[in-house]
Amino acid sequence: MNVIATVLTFLVGIEHIGICFLEIFGKPEMQAKAFNMDLDFVKQPAARISMANQGIYNGMLGLLLILVYFVFKASIAFTVWQLLLTLIVVVAIFGGFTATKKIFLVQMLPALLALIFVTLQK
Questions:
Q1: Where is the signal peptide (predicted)?
Q2: Which of these, 35, 41, 45, 120, has the minimum number of CB atoms within 10 Å of its CB?
């Protein structure tokens, strides 16, 4: 199960790095479709800046999920992963209720599965 927990956590990290690139560098048409937003809204400078700001947080979170594996011993890494994955689940629940229900499936479910396997590892 250690391998499954690690792989799932890495996938969540990679997913958040991908979200980062979409939020920072994605074309407005792709962003509007991915985040269920109006294209005219996404094209506004303030929305672009806000989305890029959110993107950098997602990218750093994804990078941190991966780096934990290389920086900490296993017992500490699993504790840090629990904390980070719980944060993602909570934020995804909020996003699912306030932004789009798709977040429940795309962000919350993978993080929740990883969290379950990481917790079973401890």
A1: none
A2: 45
